[in-house]
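Thread: Newbie trying to understand structure tokens

Hi all, I'm a second-year student working on a class project, and my supervisor (Dr. K.) asked me to get a predicted structure for one chain before our next meeting. I've only ever worked with sequences, so writing a 3D structure as a token string is new to me. If someone could post the tokens and maybe explain what I'm looking at, I'd be very grateful. Here's the chain:
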Amino acid sequence: MLNKRLFLPAFIVMLLVYSFTREATIAVLSDAYFQVAAFVYASLSVYYLATLKVSAEAIGDFMRKHPLYEVGLASFLGALPGCGGAIIVVTQYTRGVTSFGAVVAVLTSTMGDAAFLLLAQAPFDGLTVMGVGMVVGTLTGVIVNRFHNYQPPSSTTALGSADDNTDDSVDDSEPSATTASSSIDKLSTYFWLVVALPSLAIALGLSFQSPVHEYLGVTEPTLQLIGAVLCLSAITLWSLNGGSAGYASLTLKKMLLRLRHAGRVKQR
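---
Reply by user tm_fold:
Sure, no problem. This is what the structure looks like when written as tokens:
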């Protein structure tokens, strides 16, 4: 069957070929990578690393038993600069882990990438706005849960299937995967392991309006081109990795699970 995901990188390459769309395409790809992808990957990696010690099911049970903590944590994640916290909460809501009030709380308290600029220009005002957003988000989430705590259909069974199957895929299903898909999966993991920290450092510098290209000894267009190449590489790997089980398959958690599985194989 044709992998329809490949149409996206093919379309981007077509935009890069024509001179009248090349400059704008490079700028958009670079901004998408350094202003969004780097922060989202960092946030998701922290979450999935945390689930190595505490299972997602245990986290979900705790959230259901302590709704105020759940909404407060969601507001805190939303207040953090970037959109990674909002993506984590919304993703877990679709899996039945968090409540609808948590989604409202995280979206109410978030400022996205604008928080970086505010913190750089006026740190005290930025922290004040973040604190107010957390309080308003928490109160709003509690009220929403009190009167309208909507849950997605079949959410009670969605939790264990997403994160738990990630562990199982390393032990059971991976030997039966095709060589090509397994190679792309590994390449995606190694790609993010190599570029994640440098990309995050560059993204933080750009968010705080620092002349990152001067620190790296390159011109600003060159740094923009690097971001565009990394973004296109990530999109291409995503399009080829059509069998991925979710975000966890590309994060540090998957890499650690691979190393753990390899150690068990050697012991046998």
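A couple of things are worth pointing out once you decode it. The CA atoms of residues 171 and 203 lie 35 Å apart. The mean pLDDT is 78. Feel free to ask follow-ups in this thread.
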